[in-house]
Amino acid sequence: MGLYDGKTVLIFGVANKDSIAWGIAQALHAQGAELAFSYGIPQLEKRVIPLAESVGAKVVMEANVNDDAAIDRVFDRVRDTYGTIDVLIHAVAFAEREDLAGRFVDTSRAGFKTALETSAYSLVTLAQRAEAMMPNGGSILTLTYYGSVAVMPHYNVMGVAKAALESSVRYLANDLGPQGIRVNAISAGPIKTLAASGVSGFRRSLHLHEQAAPMRSLVTQEDVGNTAVWLCSEWAQSVTGQVIYVDSGWNIMGLTVPFEEMDKPGE
Ligand code: NAD
Fold first, then answer.
1. What is the pTM of this model?
2. CATH of 8-248, one of 3.40.50.1010, 3.40.190.10, 3.40.50.300, 3.40.50.720
3. Catalytic residue among 4, 82, 145, 245
4. How confident is the model over 119-132, as pLDDT tens digits?
5. Is 2 strand, coil or helix?
6. Which atom of ligand 1 has the smallest separation from the CA of 192?
7. Which of 113, 224, 197 is nearest to 161 (CA)?
8. Taking each helix axis from N to C terminus, what angle separates 122-132 and 68-82, rounded to the nearest 10 degrees?
9. Where are the domains of the chain?
10. Which atom of ligand 1 is nearest to the CA of 13?
11. Average model confidence (pLDDT) for the chain?
12. What's the CA gap between 145 and 159, in Å, rounded?
């Protein structure tokens, strides 16, 4: 018996086997969920289709989340195949590479718009369609990062986009709560993925995280997947509008340097 037996989950944002969305997909599949996938660009097809097939997905479709007609095609297909959905996973973010290096103050109007539209508004537009397919309630989950709250090196416009995303989670939770639809975010610690490698200096931040987070460990796809299983299930029945940190405790720290460094004699 799985926690997700008889439940259907639509997942946006698998790019390859390293994607956080794939970690979530595997954890939900292990609990009996029926999975449908949408991926961002045609070049990802050869990576995403074999993954989707390995978990028996009946729907695997490309859609740019900035294209309403493409999103509609995905939801129409999912409706024709399953009727309704129980869970929507939004694991999508994008900013131009030049906006993930250097100074935030230099962000262009176009770069700001791209990052905010793709990484924050996309949750809203997907939630509109998910609402119509969740007549018995459901759960919507997105992924965010601590760069929304505090300044992280080179995260820049993506930090601003994540702040908008987290605020959207709260407004969506309020709008959709009466229909029994919960909306939450997982704020994950750094994980080596395609998107993360676009942030200048990411490898260094991985190293620091491992040294300075309370648990002295990196976060895995599996950690995020397991939290998603809980958060999107009835075990989290009254949890909505929240940002749940899965970051080995990094966000509680005031000074994020390894404490061992502070205890060196004579310093
Ligand atoms: P990833 O590269 O595997 O996933 C990002 C996904 O966004 C890709 O599948 C990409 O195709 C998709 N995407 C980008 N633009 C799109 C568009 N216009 N239309 C449709 N899809 C589009 O990387 P990931 O790290 O697994 O990212 C998933 C989510 O997790 C993102 O929101 C990211 O910000 C968030 N996150 C990542 C980390 C990390 O350290 N990796 C930490 C916290 C939060």
1. 0.98
2. 3.40.50.720
3. 145
4. 999 999 999 999 99
5. coil
6. 41
7. 113
8. 30
9. 8-248
10. 9
11. 96
12. 8
| Protein residue with least CA distance to atom 7, ligand 1 | 92
Q: Report yes or no: 3 and 31 within 8 Å, Cβ to Cβ.
A: yes
- Which two three-digit tokens encode residue 205? 């931040």
Specify the ligand 1 atom closest to the Cα of 12. Answer: 21
Phi, psi of 154 (to 5 degrees): 65, 0
CA separation for the pair 190, 160 (Å, rounded)? 17
* Average pLDDT estimate for 231-240: 98
Write out the two tokens for 183: 């909306």
What is the DSSP code string of 232-253? TSGGGTT--S-EEEESTTGGG-
Is 155 a catalytic site residue? yes
* pLDDT for 180: 98
Tell me the chain's radius of gyration from C-alpha atoms: 18
Residues 6+ apart with CB under 8 A from 44: 14, 15, 16, 62
In the block, residue with structure tokens 């997909």: 25
146 labelled catalytic? no
- Contacts of 245 by beta carbon, 8 Å cutoff, 6+ apart: 146, 186, 187, 251
Tokens representing residue 258 in the block? 């390894």
Q: Whose CA is nearest to atom 28 of ligand 1?
A: 91
Tally Cβ neighbours within 10 Å of residue 12.
Answer: 23
Token pair for 81: 């195949």
- Ligand 1 binding site (Cβ under 6 Å of any ligand atom): 13-15, 19-21, 39-41, 44, 64-66, 91-94, 118, 143-145, 188, 190-191, 193-196
State the average pLDDT over residues 243-262. Answer: 91
CA distance 206 to 18: 15
Three-class SS of residue 187? strand
